[in-house]
Design a protein that fits this description.
By secondary structure, this protein is α/β, with parallel strands linked by helices. The protein has helices at about 15-25, 40-50, 70-75, 105-125, 175-185, 200-210, 230-245, 260-275, 315-335, 350, and strands at about 1-5, 30, 35-40, 55-65, 90-95, 135-145, 145-155, 195, 255-260, 280-285, 300-305, 340-345, 360-365, 365-375. The chain has two domains: about 1-155, VC0802-like (2-Layer Sandwich); about 175-210 and about 245-375, Rossmann fold. Helix content is about 30%, strand content about 20%. Strands 2-3-1-4-7-6-5 form a seven-stranded mixed sheet. It has a seven-stranded mixed sheet with strand order 10-9-8-11-12-14-13, with helices on one face. The protein is globular and about 70 Å long. Keywords: Methyltransferase, RNA-binding, Transferase.
Length: about 375
């Protein structure tokens, strides 16, 4: 059994723990920013393949106390890197620190890289090359006030990079944040779902994959495949099982629209490239005027949206004028629906004149946001 740490966007840790349990982890331990767990390698493969929430799954290979940079160098030097990957593979080292007394993260990163190269030179007579863009092996160092932990990244590229979204519009939502919002909303495949500000289609792509039971990692490769201890047979079995479980693409009652024709075209291109276009109905339309899809009163659904945040003062003024009619439009067109808006703008509920039934703290990258839940009823929704 090995020790791992799965990272995720802040606010989604309980959902990540659910993913890990589904992959076969028996005792996940949640902390801010991720989940510690102990598992065998096939379970690690399954977590990479199936988790919609994880950003990376890191394998812990060394841990020790330190007082200065030389202690961290020594810890990395004593770690048997050549047992896990070859000198011909490229590496990249990243370091994060919390409450560390050491002055320079760049210098610590350099010391860890030097130690790995020195260990290879001692064992093989050669040293690996560095590739910061597309390395074969990623090494992560985490430094707390007095301890250093070294990890090998089993994921490679971040897991939210599903390999589906080629065309993007401004400020796209990360795929694992979108998947987390869909889960937090309680949406289940078969229930009408609308993203009225669909941009490049991130919500639509995630929902369609969920509806068609497509594993989020089925179309990409992983860091663990480049390690010496990679077990091909269990991985091949998992991948075959995931492919067999997929459903054929068909209408999944998922709807997307946007006032920008460029955004609609980007969504269409991304869905088409992913083979998911039959599952989604796309249209052009303004959120202030569109009607709820399947508007028969018997099919209340879920609406999810990621409105612009307004970083500049002029944009904030525009949003302040946009929110009141948005609140009116939701009351008028979405009675019976549950609407979820992700925003970094804390003025949103007050200016929409709606009282959220729930607020969930989430991070989209480094931006602190709230996921506001509005349960729409006819007429006023204020308490």
């Amino acid at each position: 059994m090995e020790t791992f740490f799965a990272t995720c966007p802040r606010g989604l840790e309980p959902l990540l723990a659910e993913d890990l349990v589904a992959a076969g982890v028996s005792d996940p331990k949640t902390i801010p920013g991720g989940v510690h767990f102990v598992a065998d390698w096939p379970t690690c493969y399954a977590a990479n393949l199936h988790s919609r929430i994880a950003t990376r799954i890191l394998w812990r290979v060394a841990h020790g106390r330190y007082a200065r940079e030389d202690d961290i160098y020594r810890l990395a030097l004593e770690t048997p890197w050549p047992a896990w990957f070859s000198v011909g593979q490229t590496i990249r080292v990243d370091v994060t620190a919390v409450k560390s007394p050491l002055k320079s993260l760049e210098f610590i990163t350099l010391r860890i890289k030097d130690a790995i190269c020195d260990r290879f030179r001692a064992d093989t007579g050669k040293r690996p090359s560095v590739d910061t863009r597309e390395p074969d092996v990623r090494i992560h160092g985490f430094i707390s006030a007095a301890e250093c932990t070294l990890y090998i990244d089993t994921s490679g590229a971040p897991l939210y990079q599903r390999g589906l979204r080629q065309k993007t519009v401004e400020a796209p939502l990360k795929e694992n944040v979108a998947a987390g919002i869909l889960r937090l909303s309680g949406w289940q495949p078969g229930t009408p779902l609308l993203d009225p500000m669909c941009g490049s289609g991130t919500f639509l792509l995630e929902a369609a994959q969920m509806a068609l039971n497509i594993a989020p990692g089925a179309g990409r490769d992983f860091g663990f495949q480049r390690l010496k201890n990679f077990q091909l047979e269990p991985w091949k079995d998992q991948l075959d099982a995931a492919m067999d479980a997929e459903k054929p693409a068909a209408n999944a009652r998922i709807y997307g629209s946007d006032s920008s024709p460029v955004a609609v075209r980007a969504s269409l291109a991304n869905l088409d490239r992913a083979g998911l276009l039959p599952a989604v109905t796309l249209s052009s339309g303004d959120i202030l005027t569109i009607e709820a899809p399947e508007n028969d009163g018997r099919s209340p659904g879920i609406m999810v949206a990621n409105p612009p945040y307004g970083e500049r003062l002029s944009e904030q003024d525009e949003l302040a004028a946009f929110y009141p009619p948005l609140g009116s439009a939701l009351k008028r067109h979405f009675a019976g629906w549950n609407c979820y808006l992700l925003s970094a703008d804390m003025r949103l509920p007050k200016l929409m004149r709606l009282t959220p039934s729930k607020k969930t703290l989430l991070f989209n990258g480094a931006i602190e946001c709230r996921l506001f839940e509005f349960r729409m009823v006819a007429g006023s929704n204020r308490r």
